[in-house]
Amino acid sequence: MKLEDILKKFLPSTILPKSIESLADNIDKFGKIGAGLLALLYVTGLIIFGLYHSSLHIRSIELFKVRYFFVGFYYLTFLFLHLAFPQWWLKRFWQKIVYLLVMLVLVVFLNDVHNIYLTYLVDNWTSGTSYFEFSPTHQSILNVNLILLVGNFLFTPFLFGFAVWMAKNVKTKQLFLLFALFALYFNYSIFTMFVFPYIPDAIGGGQAPIVNIVFDKDVPYDVTTNFDISGNVPGFVSPYYYGRLVYMDDNSIFLQEPFWYANDVYEIQRDDIIMMRYTDFNPAKIGQPGLFP
């Protein structure tokens, strides 16, 4: 089969050059489309990353970072899979439900803590005991998180579908925009709470890497104690400082405690830290099983 026949089979006739002279025009067209897509990815990534950091009370942001292309790609992909695909490509109600349930399972298991907690629940239900431990407070946190995730994840596509139905049948742009914006807000919230923080930092995600911290000797105790794991993890007697590196700029380093339930972000001056060692070893994963990050 000739190349021309293959192109005609797989590509729309509107984008095939009808002559050698038109090839340059098509290359120019694709170049503009590519530039537009890159701009869309960058701007989307910049906005999402900025809003995500604002939710962590981090006001510092750099305008020019390759990472924004990745963030924009991740968010737009999630937006398409969560809202657009079930709305316009799945016609039957049962298909939408099955698809959303499968996607929900994938999102739930992005988080190691959810995996461990579900194992803990199954172990207690089947045998009455489990290797893992979760305090009542931590169980309440996880139960609320899972309820919010499941409810919002399943509700949002149908809210968006209702907005599309309103636009077609009621012809009221204001109501369509209102419901569509609510759907986008819920979609963004799910992405920033349950998806982006668990995409590895090495590929542009928001998963904060674990670092072993060496503080300057003059740093006050009330700063270093937040990252000293010796009081929480058996086997560590002397002070050992570990944290999750959320962000850093020219003046500050933004850290979280290494435990999964720690949400506070601490801004520490660069001069207060002598060294940070990046490591795959997370001491919160040993000792107390319920302290998995």
Account of the protein in words:
This protein is α+β, with helices and mostly antiparallel strands. Helix content is 54%, strand content 10%. A five-stranded antiparallel sheet has the order 4-3-2-1-5, with no helix packed on it. 19% of the residues are buried.
User: What value does the average pLDDT take?
Assistant: 84
What would the principal axes of the Cα set say about the shape? globular
Helix content: 40-55%
Residue runs with pLDDT of under 50 for 5 or more positions: 286-293
Major β-sheet strand ordering:
4-3-2-1-5
How many helices in DSSP terms? 8
Topology of helices and strands:
Elements: H1 3-10, H2 20-55, H3 67-88, H4 93-108, H5 112-126, H6 136-169, H7 173-195, E1 210-215, H8 221-224, E2 242-248, E3 252-256, E4 266-269, E5 273-278
Helix pairs in contact: 2-3, 3-6, 3-7, 4-6, 6-7
How would you concisely characterize the structure shown here?
The chain has helices at residues 3-10, 20-55, 67-88, 93-108, 112-126, 136-169, 173-195, 221-224, and strands at residues 210-215, 242-248, 252-256, 266-269, 273-278. With 293 residues, the protein is α+β, with helices and mostly antiparallel strands. Among the domains are: 81-201; 210-291, no CATH class.
